[in-house]
Amino acid sequence: MAQRLAYRKRNPYNTRSNKVKVVKTPGGKLVYQHVKKIASKPKCGGCEHFLPGIPALRPRQYATVSKPTKTVQRAYGGVYCGNCVRERIVRAFLIEEQKIVKKVVKTTAAAAPKAEKPKKKTAKK
Ligand SMILES: [Zn+2]
Predict the structure, then answer these.
(1) What is the DSSP string of 81-111?
(2) If you ran DSSP here, which 8-state letter would residue 114 be given?
(3) What is the mean pLDDT of residues 76-103?
(4) How far does the centroid of ligand 1 lie from the alpha carbon of residue 89, in Å?
(5) What's the gap in Å between 99 CA and the centre of ligand 1?
(6) Is the pLDDT of residue 114 over 90?
(7) Pairing of strands 30-34, 20-24
(8) pLDDT at residue number 119
């Protein structure tokens, strides 16, 4: 007959946080060994891809490992993947360029003679 086993902690319910596996002790007895929840892999904040180079640890374990294990040497390393960082940099650059172009267009329009102004209105419509 199979040996009946008892939880070794105070939580008596079969919950997600109270998972066990059966191990045999050196004395030949079967006992429950409480196992921790499986850690989820860290994901990119932008595209939900898993971040390469970052270990999957339980939240409290990240406090015990050193900083270089939790990050990669890049802007937003350990938060965004390389593709997302590149996209953000390009996007920010293009927005800045657009601002400059707008400023230049505004100054040239102000410097240009007034005869051109009605043309612009027709172009808008
Ligand atoms: Zn990403």
Answers:
(1) -HHHHHHHHHHHHHHHHHHHHHHHHHHHHHH
(2) G
(3) 96
(4) 13
(5) 26
(6) no
(7) antiparallel
(8) 55
